[in-house]
Task: inverse folding
């Protein structure tokens, strides 16, 4: 397991973590500058933040700073009530894929969607099995473009509390079932001593979403290096006061993050540890510099 | 599948649903009277409500009304930081078992506990595997008394959002793994045409906690009639504004309750459908009679 205590070379900042500073939106260029000034080598930006600045300008700045992208947030939201909706999702996902490629991201992260309309408070139906089928089919269609573009797709299983409105893939096991069905890896014939085969489809492991799962270690082992495309960290607070925007800084909650990172690294994962914290009442109310400095300190002490 | 549309003979009221009326605590005798007046045949009371009135008085009233108990809430909370804590939990659970027997409950429902201290906001450690081992061992010890008393234990897998502070058994699969380890059923030698064997240890299926699980149907089939000891209903609201006390009335959320009830009844479950709603801002603010009448109506239309 890599030693993170001496530096922060493997730290990545998901830009949602500092989306706001003292409650005010921060433009993406200011976030990128602030990260680069601190020797942070990687980020994972959100599409809306990129769009607000302009893709070309963000791409230029990322290259100028020499920043890597540990992921691009996000594609997905594959579910809909009619063919037009499914088609619109397909089109939008291909644009996300193109943006990820332009920014040379490690992967496009997928938040797959759930019951159509639920995020707006009014689910169009209650058939989660139908949503899961639409997600499966949508990933399958996007995968053709992903392979052509050489841009892997990372399914992010979200915590089951988001099953209604954000993502109906809620466990590593389910995510890997989809991976294996759509992107089988010909492991049996491969040279076991050779390099791992590249997977076009894998998973983003966010400790916030999966820490509770009694099958987590087993499923991380099942994923293997080929399918472990991203590793996200924050912490689970007790009490958690909001289902979406009350995530904790690493070390402030109950997740044994080093243990989970150990399992991921046992599989050969050598990527960045990406901090993704949504925190309306706490961290988004603080000054961006304090938040980034705390991320660096906690990356060393608590990840 | 039973037809619930014509009457409410299979309705049970978990007394937490009407714990408050217009925001004021309601004594258990008033709840029992109000249920009996409406022809509700079963309830599931909470220990603190029973204690406030006195076990003997509650027992007398339950018998006078001819009320069945679809369960008794609750035992569990098996985790602790030292032997004294584990022993105290054992003692308390045996008392709960005795109370359940005095009230002739169908089962003692177990909310198994999680990281010690987390419910008070300060977890003593982050080792959820240790908590799970303590739960396993604690259920094993209680099971001896359960068998002697003829009072089955129903593990209630809670939603994963409660894994830190309330219950570290969060899926049907995990609950049934514990059941099979501690209370193996000698199915292989049993007469397949004979009556189902009684299990000392089973599960309480609450749709709120398990509706999202892609393996739900498979695990309900695995549980079989022997292990399906209780069936709880309410609904998942979008948005959900609070992790604990924002549960919805059946029909107001996104859970396909009849589908899940169908799966449970396919296994031969013939028990009550128990309404358990924690709703600080909505149903606990209404008048108890209105809430009970709504439970009856929704039991007919949406369960």
Result:
């Amino acid at each position: 397991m890599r030693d993170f205590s001496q530096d922060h070379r493997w730290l990545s900042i998901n830009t949602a973590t500092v989306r706001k500073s003292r409650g005010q939106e921060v433009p993406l260029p200011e976030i990128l500058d602030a990260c680069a000034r601190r020797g942070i080598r990687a980020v994972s930006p959100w599409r809306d933040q990129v769009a607000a600045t302009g893709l070309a300008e963000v791409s230029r700045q990322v290259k100028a700073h020499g920043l890597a992208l540990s992921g691009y947030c996000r594609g997905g939201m594959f579910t809909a009530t009619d063919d037009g909706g499914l088609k619109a999702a397909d089109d939008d996902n291909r644009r996300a894929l193109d943006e990820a490629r332009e920014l040379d991201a490690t992967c496009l992260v997928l938040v797959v969607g759930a019951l159509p309309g639920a995020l707006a408070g009014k689910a169009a139906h209650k058939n989660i099995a139908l949503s899961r089928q639409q997600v499966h089919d949508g990933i399958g269609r996007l995968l053709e473009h992903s392979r052509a573009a050489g841009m892997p797709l990372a399914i992010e299983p979200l915590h089951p509390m988001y099953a209604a409105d954000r993502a109906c893939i809620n466990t590593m096991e389910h995510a890997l079932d989809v991976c294996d069905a759509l992107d089988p890896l010909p492991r049996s014939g491969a040279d076991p001593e050779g390099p791992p085969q590249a997977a076009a489809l894998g998973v983003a492991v966010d400790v916030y979403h999966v820490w509770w799962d009694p099958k987590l270690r087993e499923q991380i082992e099942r994923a293997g290096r080929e399918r472990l495309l991203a590793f996200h960290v924050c912490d689970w607070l007790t009490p958690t006061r909001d289902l979406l925007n009350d995530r904790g800084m690493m070390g402030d909650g109950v997740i044994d993050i080093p243990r989970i990172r150990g399992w991921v690294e046992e599989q050969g994962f050598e990527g960045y540890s990406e901090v993704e914290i949504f925190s309306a009442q706490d961290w988004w109310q603080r000054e961006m510099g304090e938040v980034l400095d705390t991320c660096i300190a906690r990356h060393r002490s608590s990840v």
